[in-house]
Structure formats: C-alpha cells, structure tokens
Amino acid sequence: MTDKDFEDVSMYVLSDERELELLRRQNECTFMWSTSEGDPVGVIMNYVYADGRFWLTATRRRKRIAAIERDPRVAIAISSRGTGIGTSQSITYKGRAVLHDDRSVKDWFYPALAAAVRPGEPEKQAAFVAHLDSPGRVVIELVPTKRIGFDSAAMFAGSKAGPSRTELG
After folding, report:
1. How many beta carbons lie within 10 A of that of residue 160, not counting itself?
2. pTM of the predicted model, to two decimals?
C-alpha cells in the first residue's frame, strides 16, 4: 500500500456488523439542517436508534424545529469516539425528519432516551423523563435515505502508519 492509496477512502466502508455495533454503543450524534438562508448548521444531540430510524427531541423554541418544518431534509453524523470500540469509525445518514407531538410516541421515546443516557440509574432516568416531558417538546424521527460509513481500521490494516494511538486500548 502506498500513500496515494489513501486519496480515495470510499472503499473503507463500515461493515453492517460494525455499523450496528456503533449504533448500539453510541447515543450521541451531530444533527444537521439548513437555515432559512441555506447555511448548514449542526448541534450535538442524544438519540435512540429503533426500527431503522433515529429518534431525537427538542423544544419547539429551538430553531431546528422551524427549519425542519420548512425543509425536512436533515442529516446526522455519528462517531465511535467514547464508545470503547475504537476511534475513527463513523457513519453519516441523510434523510427526512418527521415531527411528532403525540403522546404515544413520547411515552415510549422519553424512557428509551433516558435509559440510553442514564444507563443503570432508574431514579435518574425517571427524573430525566419528567424533565423531558414539557408542553413545548416534540420528538424528531429521522427516516434515513442514504448512509455513508467509514472505518479507519480497514484503511490502516495494511499501512505502516497503523491505528491511531487512541485505538490501541
């Protein structure tokens, strides 16, 4: 392998198995949308992955909610950083956002999100659910239409550079 082999990294895709492991272990993403002027913007948010979709939440006062209502095309980027499965595994999903204001969605989603961000702490989970359950909050469902995955372990497998030091356990 030579340095020029790293010009095109599209062949170093994240396998389906590694993608599912990343989605199982991570609960934080960068959520991205376009402003009314067409500028891209993103924020870090927690999510739940269920039934092939990503579920997030925000209050109606957040500018991202008005942006989704104007243009539901959004994206999220997820990194393996902090998961214990190595760094430089990432996946980006483009898709369409659907806003939910109904009680049935909130009733399953809030406890699921609380369990993801407060694992093993039932009292804190209950307090977090109560915190989330405010009148102006909506649930965002991202329905993916395209995925772009990257796995640095595949890229550096045959390289003298080897994995990054943060991947060495």
Report:
1. 7
2. 0.85
